[in-house]
Amino acid sequence: MEGYEGVWKLYRNGELVEERSFDVSPLKPQKKGVVTIAPKRMDSKSEYIVVIEFRQAADKPWAKQGFVQAREQFIIQEAGQKPAIATVAEGSALELSPDQKNDSRQRLQCDV
User: Fold this and answer.
1) What DSSP character marks residue 4?
2) Residue 17 and residue 39: Cα distance in Å, rounded?
3) pLDDT score for 6
């Protein structure tokens, strides 16, 4: 995969927690290959997604260095022990009431 830089990004519950580059020289066009990622740390209760990107290693007439040529996303661990909706949805019912500043608008009013 000459001319490309490989990058993997690890997201925990939607937040980027780690990003590293990897060697793409063993990967050949039109062939299968293996990319091994080794995250520093993962906890069992969180969702983890890895995004693998192949970026331009140098400026080209059609794209600047760092341009993402290919990207794929993989779930490597689903979140464990998700709370039941009944435990999250506590509190009073939501009500819509007229906005005091402008009668033509409505706002969402709720107790938190």
Assistant:
1) E
2) 9
3) 93
